[in-house]
Design brief:
about 260 residues, five-stranded mixed beta sheet, four-stranded antiparallel beta sheet
Length: about 260
């Protein structure tokens, strides 16, 4: 039995019916939703910045340890070529010339890469200045360090100071090079708060260069036996350091054993 065709076109009717429908409107974000989204973005941004800084500082700390290790190796090579001793300071008043340990290593060709002498956590200083890692200060009145040999000729006209490794009784606990900084109150403003070429074991008493806890409360130290350690305040106190500078370059007393 044949089925009669519908009296009108169904496809056309459906199309016409659909064309007459009003599409649903898109709901806008509420103020609360916008505020929540902005807050989430802000939190993520802070976390990302914190992570980036932590990663950068971690890399700088590793590089600093490497630098101190290399600097120590060069010092041993120099000492081996100079009777087992390392120059600390030389001054010739007649020639109006002074030379510290870093200049000695550079001028004699031992230190060929100047970047090894600086901690990357602080802005790189001018290589012509006395800003670098610190070598333990020779000051018999304040520090009484072992191994030093001071030759004062003609009442200060010629001064040469060496440190003899063989005279250091316990090299494994003798801080030789370290992260150091100059006091913020230093008389030369351009050098205040910068890396410094020597450190005292008690800078709080001398208001001078001292060890700097710049790596999240720690300082990297090269010891006279050739190893490097990253020490906190307690660790520095255990190796004879009486005071140091915190990250804000404020002098702090260290706990003593």
């Amino acid at each position: 039995m044949a089925v009669d065709s519908p009296p009108y076109n169904l496809k056309l009717a459906k199309r016409s019916h659909s064309a007459g429908r009003v599409p649903p409107t898109r709901r806008a974000f509420t103020l609360m939703e916008v505020m929540i989204a902005v807050s989430i973005i802000a939190v993520v941004s802070v976390l990302l910045v914190t992570w980036t800084r932590a990663t950068r500082e971690s890399a700088a700390k590793v590089r600093c340890i490497y630098n101190l290790s290399q600097l120590g190796n060069l010092t041993f090579i120099y000492a081996n070529d100079h009777g087992g001793r390392m120059l600390y300071y030389h001054y010739d008043r007649d020639a109006k010339y002074e030379r510290w340990w870093r200049t000695e290593l550079t001028s004699k060709g031992y230190l060929k890469d100047e970047k090894i002498a600086y901690c990357p956590s602080l802005v790189a200083p001018n290589p012509q200045t006395v800003q670098s890692y610190g070598m333990r200060l020779y000051n018999p009145k304040a520090d009484n360090p072992e191994g030093y040999d001071n030759k004062n000729i003609n009442k200060g006209e010629l001064v040469t100071t060496y440190v003899h490794f063989s005279r250091i009784s316990r090299p494994s606990t003798y801080p030789f090079y370290a992260d150091s900084v100059q006091s913020l109150d230093y008389s030369v403003a351009t050098r205040a708060g910068k890396q410094w070429h020597r450190f005292s074991i008690n800078p709080a008493a001398t208001n001078g260069g001292g060890i700097h806890l710049r790596h999240n409360g720690r300082a990297n130290v090269w010891f006279a036996d050739g190893h490097v350690e990253s020490l906190d305040a307690k660790g520095l106190g255990q190796v004879g350091i009486l005071s140091a500078y915190n990250e804000k370059i404020e002098p702090i007393a260290l706990p003593q054993p």
